[in-house]
Amino acid sequence: MRSTRKGDALAELLFKEGIRNQKVLNAIASTPRELFLPDALKHKAYQNTALPIGQGQTISQPYIVAKMTELLLSADNEAKNVLEIGTGSGYQTAILGQLFKKVFSVERIKSLQFQAKRRMNQLDLHNISMKHGDGWKGWASKGPFDAIIVTAAASSLPTDLCNQLNEGGRLIIPIGSEQQTLTCVDSKEGELSTQTIESVRFVPLVAGDIL
Question: What pairs with residue 102 in β-bridges?
């Protein structure tokens, strides 16, 4: 994928907002965000804002996508494989697919997963595996993972996801209900350490799956 004028402008805006990882900025610039939006909202594709995609879900603000990805890449372990919880439109998935060797993504809403899978094929991103399932449970059979990213807010830190994190791995997750904080969880020598990054706003991480 090649960057576009609008993509470059968005990447430049994110740089001004504090995103410094050039690989992340390049991925943002080269990913056609309009592909992940309903027709009525395509004109807003390169605005730095979250937008609805149906089923009560949203495509995240580009800054948050870039920030969470940058946090994964700044871990000490040079992650090769990453688990994404909440495929949604597939926008974050596509960014990850350009930066990690292998991406595994779980989505609880079957119709969203189907659409996202089609978009990955359109973009020739073939290092991504998708599953329809409960995000709280992760994807144990494909783990453990060097990195895990959760794109919905959990009421508490999901035990199953922590158990699927490799030694030296990093989990990025929004935690909370009314007040949500982006949280960085690192696994070191069998212990978990957490760091609060910033306040965020995500849809809730709901247990179960629906067709």
Answer: 81
